[in-house]
Amino acid sequence: MTPAPDQMMPRLLRALAGETLDRPPVWFMRQAGRSLPEYRELRAKAPDFIAFCHNPEMAAEATLQPMRRFPFDAAIVFADILLIPRALGQDVWFEAGEGPRLAPLPPIAALAEQIEASTGRLADIGETLQRVRAELEPDRALIGFAGAPWTVATYMIEGRGSDRAAARAFAYAEPKALDALLEVLVESTARYLVMQARSGAQALKLFESWAEGLAEDVFERVVIAPHAAIVEKVRAAGVTVPFIGFPRGAGALVEAYAEAVPVEGVALDTQATAALGRRLQAQGKTIQGALDNLLLRQGGPALDARVEQLLEQWGKGPYIFNLGHGVLPDTPIAHIARVVERVTGRHTWADA
After folding, report:
1. From CA 255, how far away is CA 110, in angstroms rounded?
2. 299: how many CB neighbours lie within 10 A of its CB?
């Protein structure tokens, strides 16, 4: 018997369409990366991290590596949230063992002049998506992504990862300048995501990695409004693929986000309560998360118990099994395999 059309769709897309499934789809943030020995071997061949991200052959291979090891239901393109500032003309580099560094923030008017050109400078990521989609099985989804404007702006303002205090102070002291910067990032991010969807991405995710510590009015201004504007611009371009929004650390403000931003899925971080997730599901949102990446690294009975708890409290769906933050580099592969097997019921190749 030929399956119904909706049953032929990747499981992730069915969940984002609101279906209740026999089991939730599963993928992990940062599933492609430093926890895999084959990734470390591949990474050693690139001159630097940014060159790696802009090499479609290598980035496609990094995207596909975890899909060969584990029965994940979705791949996420290997890239970085700081490719947009670089495409807009702000110098970005990565210091070994320390993370990203950015040159001083250019004049915002100069950044605005580079919006149209920035999408072309990110064409390599489109080619990566095309390569992955050509090789990935049709029942496994391909996710594109971008860093959300506020998170990207914090790096652009401060020049590195930090506690975001300087960026928050900037939001109060220079509101017009911040709003102008966010407008540039909204427009460039929307164009970037449209390009990703046209290159094969079947879902799009906005990573607001630094949504914590914001007052309600500031959260509305720097998180909710930019996210809603990006979705609106992407939809206006004719792109219909589903969105997942991830306001990590937003706490009690997650529900306001879910109500105001027209995303199909809301990713939850580690602190999310069972009741919060159920309320969002009842409001028609697909939820994703919120397994602690530290617990994934630790393993053992506590990990098994938490996996079962998450499946029990949210598994009737719509739900996507994932972490509350990305896989840590020193996470044992066997722990990843055990969780994926418990969710999917499928054996996993986990040898190091």
Report:
1. 36
2. 16
pLDDT tens digits for range 56-115: 999 999 999 999 999 999 999 999 999 999 999 999 999 887 889 999 999 999 999 999
Query: CA-CA distance, 112 to 168, in Å (whole number)?
Result: 22
Q: With bands split at pLDDT 50, 70 and 90, how would you rate the model's confidence at 6? A: low
Q: Which residue has the tokens 């860093």?
A: 147
Helix H or strand E segment including 74: strand 74-76
**Closest among 27, 67, 73, 32 to 322, alpha carbons compared:** 27
Does a cis peptide bond (omega within 30 degrees of 0) precede residue 290?
yes
Q: Is 350 helix (H, G, I), strand (E, B) or coil?
A: coil
Q: What's the order of all strands across the beta sheet hosting 243-247? A: 74-76, 141-147, 203-208, 243-247, 265-267, 286-288, 319-320
Token pair of 160 as six digits: 């590195």
Bond from prior residue into 318 cis (ω within 30 degrees of 0):
yes
CATH number among 1.20.1080.10, 3.20.20.210, 3.20.20.140, 3.40.50.300, domain 5-342: 3.20.20.210
Which pLDDT band holds residue 160 (cuts at 50, 70, 90)?
Answer: confident
> Residue 351: pLDDT band by 50, 70, 90 thresholds?
low
Lookup: tokens for 96: 């070994």
Six-digit token pair at 144? 């594109």
- Percent residues over pLDDT 70 in the chain: 96
pLDDT in tens, 186-238: 999 999 999 999 999 999 999 999 999 999 999 999 999 999 999 999 999 99
Dist. CA 330–CA 298, nearest whole Å:
10
DSSP string for residues in 153-206: HHHHHHSB-S-SHHHHHHHHH-HHHHHHHHHHHHHHHHHHHHHHHHTT-SEEEE
SS3 92: strand
User: Which residues are catalytically annotated?
Assistant: 30, 34, 43, 80, 155
Sign of dihedral through CA atoms 142, 73, 29, 328? negative
Other beta carbons within 10 angstroms of residue 150's beta carbon come to 30
147 backbone φψ class: left, alpha, beta (φ>0; ψ -120 to 50): beta
> For residues 330 and 186, what is the distance between their CA atoms, to the nearest angstrom?
34
